[in-house]
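Sample log: Protein kinase-like domain.
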Amino acid sequence: MENNLTSPSRYCIAELSTNVLSDFKIILASLQGELKLNDNVFRGVDGFLAKYFKKSDTVQDTIDDAKSADGVDQLSTNIFNIAHLDTLMDWLVDFRSLFFPADPNIPFRFRFSFRCESITTPGPPFSASIYFETEDISTTTGSTRVYGEYHHGDAPDNGFLPFAARALQVFKAQPTRHFLHAFILHGTTLELWVFDRVGAYSSGPIDLAQNPQELFHIMAGYGMMNDKEYGINTFVKCLGPGSDSYISFDEGVPSDTASSSDGDVASDEGTIKKLYLRQEMLAAPGYLVGLGTTCFAASESTTDKPNIVVKFSWRADNTIDEPQLLWKLRERGTSGVVEILGHKDLVSIADLRQDLQFPGPFVNRTLSCIVTSPLGRPIRKFSSISELLGVLGDLAMTIKSLFLNVKMLHRDIAIKNLVIDPQEQRRIRNSIIYQGSYSVDPQGILIDFGAALDLEKGPPPRQIVGSDGFMAIGVLRGEPHTYRHDLESLFYVFLWLAIANDSEHDHAHEILERLPKTSRLQKWRSPDLDFEAVWKAVEADMSPEGFEEILGEFSPDFDPFKDLARKLRGLIFPVQDGVIFTGTDTDEEAAARLCDEMADAFLKEYRRKWYLY
């Protein structure tokens, strides 16, 4: 197999027939940046076979018990000469019949099937994907347990990344799994791989020409694994095909002391022991390496309307401990933020890679399950511009409360992290209109504190944190994050919504695909991480002259709010000596004043729209 993981000349995308090519290109480009040989991709890891195929005696017994030695010999001979998809499928069926015959006494986990898809166009040289799929109806959504590829000996070696990209498709369908077993058989060379949220590692090449029966040891070993050994997240269970999955928590402390619990979910009535997850995910990663954040809507029964969010995420060591921050927010009684109900650490990469000897260090990550409330409506799905203005005003006050009362910065204010509380009467509307005061129970809610910073633990480090398209100019320059940067990002959220008016997409790159190529927002993000080019473009657009060009892109629905946008720009970027000021006044009175002024700007428009409509 090619060692070069980054050479684009090795890609053979045009030969794919089973994947959408545009999606495959995106995945391939992503993996090119994620996976680097001898950084987070390791070949020939010591202990690989001993760890994952330690049932060698049982496997050998299975081989010895096969119906006939002739059948084994015939399978050994045929595997290297397969040139068609039908022939490959026949070989796999024969293998299964020989080694795992239908028998009611066979443990249920051994009942698996194969699915094959052609990678290349019809005709030699032949290549195909092989999927080990479970027949166990009680398992989690997604039946694939192992991904493999068969390449005829005459087929070109297209390198590692296309193989990894196809394996990632399984991760996308099952984003909560811990890891994925995969293999690639090219001619007489077999290599076994494991992919996880840190990278990938392999057994190294295995020469089957010297010992063809080694293939049977491997294939039978895969067939005898249980879900945990396959890398499935067994914390998530399922009652049957098409049914909701669920998670169970141990019995724990009542809700009034829930902040000290680890593994229990608190409600007003006490402790929730079981939560049912809806099949459609609220969020799922399109990448392999990283947090792998996956969110589900959930409820305490299959018939209740979902009102809870269950989030799975792999946090790296020495990074933000989101559950800890959420418990702090709950203890302080902070309004306008998502409320944690419980959490549980499930497993770490170090645990999963135990007994393996790597030639270099790897990043350790811990998978957490975090349960929060409320299940909000994405801010992009505002029911009216009036509602949006009220929500943005709430969020400005939440940023104030976080900084002044809790000593915390969110650091990732973006469309994807802002929701609207589903309880329509959370805002005390009469007091807002007639008294000009905010309800202490806001309708705008901040979620995802995975990048948040607890200032009580020290000053902010110099690092670029945030979402592409929404980061403040100072952050893009590498300056320490401040409360004003969070307000600046909130202002950008308003601008993105006013220009794109996109109710379907959260991320800048998705929104930009539907905007004209001439839109000034096209320069507000950088796929190649050229942050200097981005901050210069944004700074130019925030100048008095450039901002009029931004206003010229407002969608028709937001035309009446151009004066509001000018007001907000003047607050965030006051002109000093003919130049816009992008710094931060760190005085607490100045911080409170700026947050109040920004909230009041939204509030005045909210009042006006309330009277008009």
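Observation: The CA atoms of residues 170 and 446 lie 31 Å apart.
Observation: The longest strand covers residues 274-283.
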